[in-house]
Amino acid sequence: MSTTFANTPSSSTERPAIVLVAFGTSVDEARKVFDFIDTQAHQRYPDYDIQWAFTSQIIINKLKQRGIITHTVAEVVADLRARGVDKIAFQSLHVVPGQEHHSILKADTDGLQVAFGDALMTSDADIEATIVALAPEINADQDTVVVAHGNDHHPEFNVQLEKFAAAIEARYPKLTVASVEGTPGISSLETVKARQPAQVHFVPLMIVAGDHIMNDVLGDEEDSWKNIIQAPLTSCSRSLGWNPAILAIYFDHLDRALAKLTGETR
Q1: Closest C-alpha to 238, from 32, 12, 25, 21
Q2: CB-hemisphere CA count at 13 Å for 6?
Q3: How much is the average pLDDT of 168-192?
Q4: In the structure, what pLDDT confidence band is assigned to residue 3 with cuts at 50, 70 and 90?
Q5: CA 257, CA 260: separation in Å to the nearest integer?
Q6: 16 pLDDT higher than 80
Q7: Residues 6 and 77: beta-carbon distance below 8 Å
Q8: What pLDDT sits at residue 13?
Q9: For 97-109, what is each residue's pLDDT tens digit?
């Protein structure tokens, strides 16, 4: 993953630039997933200028204090504009079209031709594709908790998450979806606890397994999800960003965004 701007000049006759936009994380181990995604993106789009942006200013500031330079969407747009790029395809790496995703749409792109790739679970078809992509991480006979983020302040941004929860829980009776914020919340963890499972498996519904997974879910604090359930054994899948089938959904969305700018389909 590039943390500095490319110096390659561009012109309006070249392909659109691609900007991959994530919330970001300050956890070093978790940040490795961005390198994996970047490699996969360059393999799929070898002739494109691919840039990265984070939507969390707090994360950007934390990384800067450690000498790690990352950029906001506005900074990346300003750089591309200065280099003569007039077409940009933004691909959200957010899970649902929520608050962070909508911040991308508010970027100042005046005078540019732009297109926006959908978040992971934007349509009903996306939800189904996500459930299929997660299937290898789920043992139907094992108690499983899908770990979502959710939103405390904007319940409208939880709608897709609630649809996903209803669909996947109907398919896997021993699986529940819980969220750090908003709905569906964590009340279902008590239901899992009541079954007294010998093992519980967590599946992050997050592109990065950062602070929420390490502390809220797997931490040693009394109120961590692991300690609420009190299963003798605990396991956890890797985050969504390591799942090629999940990345394929994002890249399909990016293909559609690029097609709006180039008229070409993949």
Answers
A1: 32
A2: 19
A3: 96
A4: low
A5: 5
A6: yes
A7: no
A8: 46
A9: 988 888 899 889 9
Q: What is the DSSP string of the chain?
A: ---S-------TTSPPEEEEEE-----HHHHHHHHHHHHHHHHHSTTS-EEEEES-HHHHHHHHHTT-----HHHHHHHHHHTT--EEEEEE--SSSSHHHHHHHTS--TTSEEEEEPPTT-SHHHHHHHHHHHGGG--TTSEEEEEE---SS-GGGGHHHHHHHHHHHHH-TTEEEEESSTTT-STHHHHHHHT--SEEEEEE-SSS--HIIIIIIT-SSTTSHHHHHT-SEEEEPPPGGG-HHHHHHHHHHHHHHHHHHHS---
Single-letter residue type at 147: V
Cis before residue 184, ω within 30 degrees of 0? yes
Q: Considering the chain, what is the average pLDDT of its residues?
A: 92
CA dihedral angle for residue 256, residue 50, residue 37, residue 66, rounded to 10 degrees: -140
